[in-house]
Amino acid sequence: MASQQEHAHLLESGGVVHHHHHHHGNLMKGKEQITRHGRTAHNMSSSSLRKKSDLSLVSKVRITLLRQFLTNLQEVILGTKLSILFPAVPLAIIAYYCNFGKPWVFALSLLGLTPLAERVSFITEQIAYYTGPTVGGLLNATCGNATELIIAVFALYERKIDVVKYSLLGSILSNLLLVLGTSLFCGGLANIGVMKEQKYDRKQADVNCQLLLLALLCHLLPLMFRYAGGLNYAATQIPILQLSRASSIVMLICYIAFLFFQLKTHRELFETQEGDEDNDDVSSEEEAVIGFKSAFIWLAGMTVFIAWLSEFVVGTIESASDSWGLSVSFLSIILLPIVGNAAEHAGAIIFAFKNKLDITLGVALGSASQISMFVVPLTIVVAWIMGINMDLDFNVLETCSLALAILVTAFTLQDGTSHYMKGFVLLLCYVVISAAFFVLKSPLKPSILNLGGEPSNTAVLGA
User: Is pLDDT of 31 > 60?
Assistant: First the structure.
């Protein structure tokens, strides 16, 4: 097993293999076939940033345990093009404990979170090789947005409800407008000589858009409630909270149904349709780079570091906003999400270049619907358990930008074809929304022209 892996790696990395076996050619052919099918969009996208490791040095180490550890270390830490950002992790921790400026801690933690987020998706994928596609899909669904979830929980713990709402909202916006826009734009331009428009499978996009519209309804109703109550905020606060919690439970039920739909009944819609699944037994042997147990240990370690850095990010966001002159809403809507999803974003764009739009859409839309239908309601339920009054009322500006982002995306993906103009329009939408939050220096404290209403943020934070 180990020797086969080493061979395959040596072959790929151009290392010299001294003892020849006959089955190498078949293995390589098999490997080429394997990498092309039976994997969901998320795995495909994150894998585009990986580098093949050259294990020729490590394989010379005699002691088995040590060799395994070094191999894992090399695969996990150096197996990504983002590994140059890893030094930011210890630097952020040092900066925090040596009392450097808080903006420094914020910036370094943001940088450090980028490779960590990518590695978590890599490790869940490794685990998926052992557990089979269904469990792997579930793992991907939950760990794919681990960073967002952890940041949200820490912000809740610090009672920074604004940061929670903003970062989750920003995550949806960046997936729908920035990632999708860039992908369609670049993909359209790159393939303009080959074809006038790129094709993709509409069925998957339709289901995701429907989920997003349901999520949008759940965000709009509490807001409408506030207006329906004659702008008397105190009177509508409890009903809004109750409605939000009920909606969250509905959204979670819907998400579970969606997982069942995606992993069980309609799996063929979501798998990247290329080739046929005849080499699956080889893939589990060839592809898994890390042992099952060690993958879990790595996952736990990564999560600890992500949690640590998330705590720094949440704790220093206000001081960073003061010293840089950017509003907290801009930092958490525009900067935080880009960091948590950087690897996925890059992957989506790379696949658009390769004219595989199904994967791109699977990543961007999949992440957006995951956050809106799973992470947001989950944070509201967690807040409920912690005794914090967090509701789905995301203020007017935020909810409206979300609504328009979802509508624009849904209309863009209507006809199953794409060209660079569609991507360009989506990108411009993102630019305008980020400009709005950039200009909005302070959260609008006097809410709704101050007609006897108390602003939502202070009312909730004071609770």
Answer: no
